[in-house]
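Z., the sequence and structure:
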Amino acid sequence: MSSTDICQLFGCACQNRHSFGIVISPRRDGLKMLCVHLTKAGFEEMKKFYMEASCFQVSPAEYVKRRIHESTTKFYCQIPFVTSDQPCHVVDLRTSEEIIHQLGTFIRSGEADVCWVPR
């Protein structure tokens, strides 16, 4: 996982400590999938990084990403799971404000026309 992924997982874990992420990597032989969660040490280290960033009055995102790369802490670990062909239901736990903000940002970026117009 990238430092950006770890930061996103930390943001989710702050709201619900039982949060997890699914990492999917396409391959020629099928999909490689991992289900991961933050370790207790990783969660505590991330809290420390964000507190340090606020004390130093620096950009939290860049500071935390740099500190993740410098750290020897194991930030996440794999959760064993089994894939299935059975139907499933997708549940989006984001708030409507988060979704609206993301959509608004995407539309204002000017990329929406490019992505939604058939070629």
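The first strand starts at residue 21 and ends at 27. Residues 3-84 form one domain.

Let me know what you think.
H.
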